[in-house]
Amino acid sequence: MKTAIVILNWNGKKLLEQFLPSVVNFSLNEAEVYVADNASTDSSISFIKENYPSVKIIKNPTNGGYAKGYNDSLQAIDADIYCLLNSDVEVTKNWLKPVLTVFKNDDETAIIQPKLLDFKNKTKFEYAGAAGGFIDLYGYPYCRGRIFNSLETDQNQFDDTSEIFWASGACLFIRANVYHKLGGFDEDYFAHQEEIDLCWRTQNIGYKVKYVGTSTVYHVGGATLQETNPHKTFLNFRNSLLNVVKNVPKKWFLFVIFSRLILDGIAGLKFLLELRPIHTFAVIKAHFSFYKNFYKYLQKRKLLQKKQNYNLHTSVVWQHFILGRRRFENLK
Fold first, then answer.
1. Which helix (H) or strand (E) holds 114?
2. Which helix (DSSP H) or strand (DSSP E) does residue 38 occupy?
3. Which residues does 82 contact at the CB level (< 8 Å), separation at least 6?
4. Sheet (strand 146-147) strand order
5. Going by C-beta distance under 8 Å and a sequence separation of 6 or more, which residues neighbour residue 326?
6. What pLDDT score was predicted for residue 251?
7. Can you tell me the distance from the alpha carbon of 73 to that of 76, in angstroms, rounded to the nearest whole number?
8. Which secondary-structure segment (H or E) carries 247?
9. Predicted pLDDT at 158
10. Closest by Cα among 213, 4, 218 to 98
11. Which of 120, 122, 141, 273 has a 20 to 30 A CA-CA distance from 305?
12. Parallel, antiparallel, or unpaired for β 150-151 and 161-164?
């Protein structure tokens, strides 16, 4: 299978200097490497041309964020498998083979995520995707190896290959024909949680999303937007609501929507009590943006012929914050 590793870049020369070498060294025998540049104003492009002539460059005319950046750049790439790789990821020797083997052996698998460990603490799982993602009844995402901010130590407990609900956009492999059949990412997300929507829609049309724990990469995380950035809070809360409107099955729809109004309000209050009022305002802003565009989002929902069920028996908020469960294996 023809494989293309596509790194989205925006003013990320320092990250390319640090992480592009591992991608080139451990990938070129099995894949072509591309950098899709979102109208950078630094010297990223000249750095690649001078130091990595084997890396192909795609220039996007604007910085449309993660979603539009990939939608625009992937139109120009001929491949069977796309690997969407963050610029702050270090890959490892033989990281591609286990993933490509699963694709070859299972035609029903359309998306795969490898094991994501923390670059700064390589014994820990990384927040963005850990060992594969799920969402709870109310649309809140969590992972094997990461429940909210509780990160597990990698003790080989997730060295398996298993079906998951969503794969992290930090390192996401997808069949090109499925990506284009779905129309790519929803550009209303701009960034954050658009991969959850893409995985949900992929399952709506009958494909599987998998995690392959025998492939390992290390992710810095927060290189574009730090956890302390209120815009990240805004995007996560707004986009999580968009996921709910677009994808939750009809019989649960109103219940989940109204429950989220309450739960997000509690989250905003929690930020306030933690003396982080700027994040409280980000949650409020997310809801106003959601209400303003509710009809538009509802029209997107109508375009989806099927709404794939998800983890309807779990409230990860209740289990983590009330019952104190910190590990994936302890969730009921």
1. strand 109-118
2. strand 32-38
3. 3, 4, 6, 74, 173, 174, 175, 176, 179
4. 133-135, 141-143, 146-147, 150-151
5. 147, 150, 320
6. 85
7. 6
8. helix 230-247
9. 98
10. 213
11. 141
12. unpaired
Distance separating alpha carbons of residues 209 and 311, to the nearest angstrom: 14
How many Cα atoms within 13 Å fall on the side-chain side of residue 144? 25
Question: Cα dihedral sign for 20, 214, 135, 117?
Answer: negative
Convert the pLDDT of each residue in 10-55 to its tens digit. Answer: 999 999 999 999 999 999 899 999 999 999 999 999 999 999 999 9
Q: Which residues of 155-185 are buried (b: 16+ CB within 10 A; e: fewer)?
A: eebbeebeebbbbbbbbbbbbbebbeebebb
Could you give the domains of the chain? 3-219 (3.90.550.10), 230-330 (no CATH)
Minimal CA–CA distance to 59: which of 48, 175, 222, 180?
48
| CA distance readout (Å), 219 to 100, 120, 304 | 20, 8, 33
- Residue-wise pLDDT tens digits, 96-152: 999 999 999 999 999 999 999 999 999 999 999 999 999 998 999 999 999 999 999
AA letter at 252: W
| Overall residue count recorded for the chain in this entry | 332
Average pLDDT of 48-65? Answer: 95
CB 130 within 8 A of CB 145: yes
